[in-house]
Task: inverse folding
């Protein structure tokens, strides 16, 4: 075991809750295993790559081709998108979706809650490397609460002396039985930006169905979403806070084939529903201000329609 893992376990390890170990490709991760659920959180990118309440199938999708390289985002789980969503607004050489999802996060707290859940907090602060990409001082706190539900809270704080504008997303990859059979409830009548049609603004009619590539930013919505998955006889409920935009993405076949870390047919078993501050919903933080983007993911039985 490396010295860092030994010190992480000495400082934050918790019997019956959290243990730090070498994960894929030797990247350090927290293995959470309590009376309610299991989860895996990589310090690389602060990505929770697995969450599974006991007795249920995994809720998150992780690409079997995910590369676990320090210069790449892990494909799957919940990548943390910050401080911009999508391509950088002016400099295309800067990384897509910002730098948080490829940064090395630090553990600052681990604890057990009275209901048997496990809480884990990771922190990220500005460095000379981040300031080269984005010239601001900041503090990010990422808190996971793992129990029968999964709660994720990303708090951004402006620790500098100038205001900044930050975009963000909890870019959640959900596991589904067959994406063509699921429907997404909660976005009816919402305006959305269609990233596949020159960013035209359209309006959602009824339930969201996936029968081709979908890449949409839904706007002015604080709604919860529900993924109805008849094949797995379950519903995944996604409640959110601090967000008025929701991103829905499935790459479909051509984009899946074009990604080295994505199996050609993998698009059939995943769907991204992302709690975001994207497009019109980016947030301006004055010096000393903070903003929390949060989501609560829960599993419910889907009674097969008669
Ligand atoms: O969230 C949707 C999206 O912005 C898509 O446009 C697609 O690029 C996806 O993110 C994944 O981006 P990545 O940089 O992880 O390949």
Result:
């Amino acid at each position: 075991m490396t010295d860092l893992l030994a010190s992480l376990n000495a400082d934050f390890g918790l019997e019956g809750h959290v243990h730090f170990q070498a994960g894929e490709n030797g990247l350090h991760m927290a293995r959470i295993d309590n009376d309610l659920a299991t989860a895996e959180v990589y310090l690389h990118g602060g990505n929770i790559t697995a969450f599974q309440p006991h007795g249920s199938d995994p809720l998150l999708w992780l690409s079997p081709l995910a590369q676990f390289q320090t210069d790449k985002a892990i494909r799957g789980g919940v990548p943390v998108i910050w401080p911009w969503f999508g391509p950088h607004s002016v400099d295309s050489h800067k990384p897509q979706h910002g730098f948080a999802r490829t940064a090395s996060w630090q553990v600052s707290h681990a604890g057990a809650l009275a209901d048997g859940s496990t809480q884990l907090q990771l922190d990220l602060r500005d460095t000379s490397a981040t300031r080269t990409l984005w010239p601001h001082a900041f503090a990010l706190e990422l808190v996971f609460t793992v129990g029968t539900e999964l709660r994720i809270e990303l708090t951004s704080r402006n620790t500098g002396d100038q205001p900044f504008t930050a975009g963000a997303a909890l870019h959640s990859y959900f596991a589904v039985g067959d994406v063509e059979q699921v429907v997404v409830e909660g976005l009816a009548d919402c305006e959305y930006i269609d990233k596949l049609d020159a960013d035209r603004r359209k309006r959602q009619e009824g339930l969201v169905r996936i029968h081709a590539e979908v890449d949409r930013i839904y706007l002015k919505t604080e709604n919860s979403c529900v993924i109805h998955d008849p094949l797995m006889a379950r519903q995944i409920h996604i409640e959110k806070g601090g967000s008025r935009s929701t991103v829905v993405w499935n790459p479909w076949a051509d984009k899946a084939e074009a990604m080295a870390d994505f199996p050609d047919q993998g698009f059939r078993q995943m769907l991204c529903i992302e709690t975001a501050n994207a497009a019109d919903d980016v947030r301006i933080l004055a010096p000393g201000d903070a903003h929390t983007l949060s989501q609560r993911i829960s599993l419910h039985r889907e009674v097969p329609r008669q």
Q: What stands out?
A: Residues 238 and 297 are 5 Å apart (CA to CA).
